[in-house]
Amino acid sequence: MPVARHVMRHAAERPSRPAVCGPQGELTYAQLAERIHGAARHLLGRGIGPGALVAIGLADPVELLTAVLAADLAGATPLVGDPAWGRERWSSVAASAGPGFFVDAPLPGAAGPAVRHDPEPGDRAWACFSSGSTGRPRAIVRTRASWTESFPHLGELAGIGPDDVVLIPGPLVSSLYAFAAVHTLATGATALLPGRRPSRALPGLLARATVVHLVPHLLPEVLEHPGALRVAVVGGAALDPGTRAAAVRAGVRVVSYYGATELSFVAVDADGGGLRPFPGVEIEVRPGGGLGEVWARSPWLADGYLGGAAGPLRRDADGWASVGDVAEPYRVGEVLRVRGRGDGAIQTGGATVVPEDVEEVLRKVPGVGDIVVIGSPHPSLGAVVTAVIEAECATPPARALLEATARGGLDEAQRPRRWYAVPSLPRTQTGKPARALVAARLAGGDPDIRRLI
């Protein structure tokens, strides 16, 4: 997926065109290309080249992109993760992936001749962690072609070209925002990279941006100050029809899409008429009661998980893949109506949280007999992570202790926002907690489930 070769081409053709604008300033394509070359020479000097895995945990988005593209130019595979983890956490979550080199500070430049690497479509050119990597690391890896060859399709659907200025208002550890950044550079446009949600600076950024990539709950805030904006590319969760109508009133065209880190693009809604297959994608909804499971077959599928880690991605012998999302019955030519994750995964603010990963951490708290983590509906985030605890004795652990454990062992998106206790959890015939029944009882106001304050 990284696009070092594209950046070098743009640097030769339009050297003074702004490439990236981050917290520390702006770089032209010529300046960015020079920094990538220097950093790639540094990696090669350390013995990091084709076949190596480079773990990258940098907070500054421009430095992160430079390291990613330097690894690409050197022929290595960049593995992008949370810069807040630190070396000990990195060692834990990356153990199954086995990175050969860890970057937690901006790569220095090294002098020398231009670095040349002939990329191949099948190169493992990008890896990142799925949300919810605590306990069972899941580093997803994909080939270069699985993303770069989808670039022209997105460019055509959204009308993004080299003269655009693209705002990417989120951390590049998210595959959604990372894709937006490298797609922008491949196109030759300018990427505005604030690095985090730019609430105060948003009006100024939108005065310059013509395109924005974001998750649905951020779109209403953007529409308050649309500035020069003409297109919003929205992914990560369902888009509220009222928000799309507000975008129309603001003169902003919305292109929304459905997909997953493991599947990339699956379906797109470019005109408000509903989700239809993204170019090159075949879709099946396989029966399973009233709803069915979404399966996709396309050139955009990920290779899988590094180190053979387990995860929701499943494949069949005919090239179809699924991550357990469910949808209403579907026929070719119809609109796809996705209803959520069939495996209980929680979509919260554009992140996917796997409940079992949260439960694994919180079960270690003294006094927790068992626990179920579910998603509770939220008007702007889609859902919030909610924990329902079965105490070992009559008194459940203090909420302060539970929250301290969550802060110490979970990423921000994984931490429960709501906490409940119940005398005993309902269970399946096999003795496992019945997650769906817990959610139904909580939604129904069961008096036995009490809020922890």
Automatic annotation (TrEMBL):
GO MF: long-chain fatty acid-CoA ligase activity
Pfam annotation, one family: AMP-binding
Sorted UniProt keywords: Ligase
Top-rank taxon: Bacteria
Domain AMP-dependent synthetase/ligase: 9-103, 115-306
InterPro entries documented for this protein: AMP-bd_C, AMP-bd_C_sf, AMP-dep_synth/lig_dom, ANL_N_sf, ATP-dep_AMP-bd_enzyme
Enzyme Commission designation: 6.2.1.3
Annotated AMP-binding enzyme C-terminal domain residues: 358-432
Protein name: Long-chain acyl-CoA synthetase
Organism: Nonomuraea jabiensis
